[in-house]
Design goal:
- This is Interferon-related developmental regulator 1.
- Keywords: Developmental protein, Differentiation.
- Interacts with PSIP1/LEDGF.
- It contains 19 helices and 2 strands.
- With 419 residues, it is an all-alpha fold.
- Among the domains are: 143 residues, Alpha Horseshoe (Leucine-rich Repeat Variant); 95 residues.
- A two-stranded antiparallel ribbon has the order 1-2.
- Strand 1 and strand 2 form a beta hairpin.
Length: 419
């Protein structure tokens, strides 16, 4: 081996190549869960916190590339670990860095900073400290979302961040309504039809409209009953127009929002009646059986699968229950509200979703999972399968599948008598 590497606390002004390699190497979430020999957990935690301090310092660097790499590294760490105490001590420093990057950075840096703001609130959970963060970042996010001169990607990221942070931290009903109004002002522009076409006009703003719609829908799930009724009356007759959009993701977002609105409407009013039900179900059925040749096969398959579920929800009040496994626990997603919430947090946490479901008090409270299940080290060790054992199991399963398929495909196999 060579000489031991002298790790600097990332204080060089020139943002050297070595500094950038630290950022990029640390940004791999797999590095947090890699199998290997047992190590001193306390020393590992100290080393991790030392690196994170360096990345926080780098968010103020002169180089935009260095700042963005540091933000991405912090995002990877926050999505893969619970760092509540570390974040609590540095929440104001992190908030100031995020605010500076959103205000003064370019598109990619703004997106990374907005993503980090989401994860910061996920780490902190609901509480006074989180409310302080949102009071600082909320106005900045709203300004970017409503700024027509900002890049679409930045506005999209800020719209998502605004919805998620408001969902997590705010107990102020006035702030909730204000945030929803900001998002409404964005996605309702998608309702406007192009006079020269039958469908919704396709513009480069579609991705922004989708993000704003999904963020608004998430906030609707925590609104009081009276406000829910108002929003349903306002949007239920307009949303079906988005089902004609050229963009697949917009059609799916509109369809899933419709299913969620019907679910909420029926919960608040057992005798709920929708006047244009026949026209709506006809549209949904057409999308669930779409065979247009000009669309890609993958898109058609995805659309048919999603809209079959949406049609069942609208017509039959049915929801296909899904099961999510994390560690020794199981969670059942049995309604559209729960699905919307789960999908939102899965998008921002990525591969860290299972870990946070096990350990994050806020998420466990949202999904009514109770306090984290405490398992001792011996139990965890018996549950954990080594990499070699996983390899043997996968190899055996692969061989078994191959033999079974080969036997079925063999023309000489006895297929039985039909007469």
């Amino acid at each position: 081996g060579g000489q031991p590497r002298n790790v600097q606390p990332f204080s060089d002004e020139d943002a050297s190549i070595e500094t950038m390699s630290h950022c990029s190497g640390f940004s791999d979430p797999a590095s947090f869960t890699e199998d290997g020999p047992e190590v001193d957990e306390e020393a590992t935690q100290e080393d991790l916190e030392y690196k994170l301090k360096g990345f926080i310092d780098l968010t103020l660097d002169k180089s935009a590339k260095t700042r963005q790499a540091a933000l991405e590294s912090l995002k990877s760490a926050f999505s893969s670990k619970i760092l509540y105490e570390f974040v609590m001590e540095r929440r104001m420093t992190l908030t100031d860095s995020i605010e500076r990057c959103i205000k003064k950075g370019k598109s990619d840096e703004q997106c990374a900073a907005a993503g980090l703001a989401c994860l910061l609130c996920v780490q902190m959970g609901s509480g006074i400290e989180s409310e302080e963060i949102f009071k600082t970042l909320g106005p900045v996010l709203k300004k970017i979302v409503c700024d027509g001169t900002a890049s679409i990607q930045a506005r999209q990221a800020c719209a998502t961040c605004l919805g998620i942070c408001c969902f997590i931290v705010t107990d102020d009903i006035t702030e909730l309504y204000s945030t929803m109004e900001c998002l409404e002002n964005v996605f309702t522009k998608a309702y406007q039809r192009d006079r020269d076409t039958n469908g919704v006009s396709s513009t480069h703003n579609t991705v922004l409209h989708i993000s704003a719609l999904l963020a608004w829908t998430l906030l609707l799930t925590i609104c009081p009953v009276n406000e829910v009724k108002k929003k349903i009356e306002m949007h239920l007759h307009k949303l079906p127009s988005l089902l004609s959009c050229d963009d697949l993701n917009m059609r799916i977002a509109a369809g899933e929002t419709l299913a969620l609105l019907f679910e909420l409407a029926r919960e608040t009013d057992a005798d709920f009646f929708y006047e244009d039900m026949d026209l709506l179900t006809e549209k949904l059925r057409a999308l669930a059986t779409d065979g247009n040749k000009h669309r890609a096969k993958v898109d058609k398959r995805k659309q048919r699968s999603v809209f079959r579920d949406i049609l069942r929800a609208v017509e039959e009040r049915d929801f296909p229950t899904e099961m999510v496994k994390f560690g020794p626990e199981r969670m059942y997603i049995d309604c559209w509200v729960k699905k919307q919430t789960y999908d939102t947090f899965k998008d921002i946490l990525g591969s860290g979703m299972q870990y946070h479901l096990q350990s994050n008090d806020f998420l466990r409270n949202v999904f009514e999972l109770g306090p984290p299940v405490m398992l001792d080290a011996a139990t965890l060790k018996t549950m954990k399968i080594s990499r070699f054992e996983r390899h043997l199991y996968n190899s055996a399963a692969f061989k078994a599948r191959t033999k079974a398929r080969s036997k079925c495909r063999d023309k000489r196999a006895d297929v039985g008598e039909f007469f």
